[in-house]
Amino acid sequence: MTDTPTKWWAKGLLFENCNCQIVCPGHFHFSQLCTHERCLGYWGINFREGEFGGVPLEGLNAIIIYDTPQHMASGNWIITTYIDHNATPDQQRAIERIVSGEVNGPWKILAQFVAERKETRLVPIAFGDEGKVKTLTAGTFFKSVISWLKGRDRESAVRLVNSYNQIHDSTQVLDMGSTEYTDAPYNLITRNTHSLHSQFSWSGQF
Asked: Scanning 64, 125, 150, 158, which has its CA 20 to 30 A from the CA of 102?
């Protein structure tokens, strides 16, 4: 008799900012060279709905810092994960398992490129969404603001449609991002560099 697989799902807002020029070549395919020798940036995750084997994910935030070579497909990524300090131990473990690719889903593809995962830190994370402008802060060491790029119609977002990316939705909004991240050994400062966001929908089982 086979055990029934445990399922999980999550929906919410995913955005990113890195030190690449707009738009980061590596975003579309890891075989393309990023702007600089190292691509430094983050994914910000705002869980608006979700459940992991009975553990609720709604209202939680996470920040995934990535440090990759210019040729991302070469691997050797270094990942640092920050999770809301008010997450329960079960919620923390659920998010860790999702973003590590351990429980299948879209993050499993990215996991094959990761050489080092630093210890997860629980920190106060504040997320803000005012439509055209979104903010993310963590403690006193991380602050990021992303905002729409200006299009022909100033009241509408500039969108990427039918774009393939493992963790983003196929339709993404192009932004500019500015981030200050100072947590040893990193000192990342970006000003109006590559950024975008989308509404994600992930699922998997284990």
From this structure: 125
